[in-house]
Amino acid sequence: MKKLQYILLAAGLWMAGVTCVMADVPAANIRYVLTGGKFTNNGKSWETAKNNIQDAINSLVADKALPGEVWVGAGTYTPTESTESSGGSTLYMSFKIPAGVTVRGGFPANGKVNGEEAGAYITRADQRRMNTTTEVGAFTIDQTILSGDLSSQTATFEYNTTRDQFTTTFYGNSYHVVTFATNGFHADGHAKALDTSKGEAALDGVIVEHGNAHFTATGDHPHEAYGGGIYMVKGSHVYNTCVRQCEATRAGGGIYMDGGGFVDHVYVSECQALGLGTT
Questions:
Q1: In the predicted model, is pLDDT for residue 7 greater than 60?
Q2: Are 113 and 127 within 8 A, CB to CB?
Q3: 101-107 and 201-204: which strand pairing?
Q4: Which long-range contacts (CB under 8 A, 24 or more apart) does 193-196 make?
Q5: Residue 146 pLDDT > 70
Q6: Scanning 20, 26, 124, 223, which has its CA 20 to 30 A from the CA of 251?
Q7: Which of 105-119, 153-167, 224-238 has the weakest average pLDDT?
Q8: Is the dihedral of CA 223, 225, 227, 229 positive or negative?
Q9: The pLDDT value given to residue 6
Q10: CB neighbours (10 Å) of residue 64?
Q11: Over the chain, what is the mean pLDDT?
Q12: Whole-angstrom Cα distance, residue 207 to residue 177?
């Protein structure tokens, strides 16, 4: 029982069924992303889907199409944009979700109802195939994976019964796979709350994996040491999401809430925070 208790506490476990938080948005305020899409596409339909989630997010912001949504088909996606204004190393690559944008995963890989090639394209988020089995953490049948694996090698997690923690191997993974800290930081290092006048920032129906907030420099609150999977702030919302195999040097291996945020029907599995540099 001791081992089980440790795993649950280290992971930070929240889980219960499936929730639906969907507001009607104009068709012009939706961007579409598929692994088979193209970067040069405008992303305004499944037929002209982009292949880059951040580019779709940025398109909504540039077009002032807020509140807006990004609908993402099944497959694995990695971040392509730095959280730092000055660039920094590739470890700063993260999916950055600003206020007014909801990123929804769990759509078929071709964007069509039930994934059928001869079928019609999905036009409503509730047409996604939700998982009704007892498989923990799998909220949708079509799985959209946001991965922090920035190299060709995949992070590994193995539970060490002697040390009573996970032995992990990362190969240059993102500090945060997903970050909502898009409104800057205070002088003490803590993130500023989002301006939600255009709506909250949200993430729905995805799997987040292999983030590594591994940062050992001293300082009040280096964000790089918190929230390996998802870094949340006030004004952000995550639901119907699984966060797995993520780690942080200080706190929030799977999810870190810096001053606020809301999670609903979220499962965090095999994540850990090492607690280094904390008192």
A1: no
A2: yes
A3: parallel
A4: 193/233, 193/234, 193/235, 193/259, 193/260, 194/98, 194/99, 194/233, 194/234, 194/235, 194/236, 195/99, 195/235, 196/99, 196/100, 196/235
A5: yes
A6: 20
A7: 153-167
A8: positive
A9: 33
A10: 10
A11: 89
A12: 11
16 pLDDT more than 70: no
How many CB atoms lie under 10 A from the CB of residue 117?
6
Residue with the two structure tokens 């506490």: 9
Poorest-pLDDT segment among 15-29, 43-57, 113-127, 264-278: 15-29
With beta carbons less than 8 A apart as the criterion, state whether 181 and 98 touch.
no
Using an 8 Å Cβ cutoff, are 197 and 232 in contact?
no
Q: pTM for the full model?
A: 0.90
Length of the chain: 279
Token reading at 39: 């970067």
Side chain identity, residue 183: N
Which residues share a beta bridge with 103?
70, 203
Predicted confidence (pLDDT) per residue in 61-77, tens digit: 999 999 999 999 999 99
Nearest to 221 by CA among 254, 181, 194, 164: 181
Please give the structure tokens belonging to residue 58.
Answer: 């940025």
DSSP letters along 102-142, please? EEEEEE-TTSBGGG-TTSPBP-SGGGS-B--SS-TT--BSS
pLDDT at 13: 35
10 Å CB burial of residue 162 (0-12, 13-18, 19+) is exposed
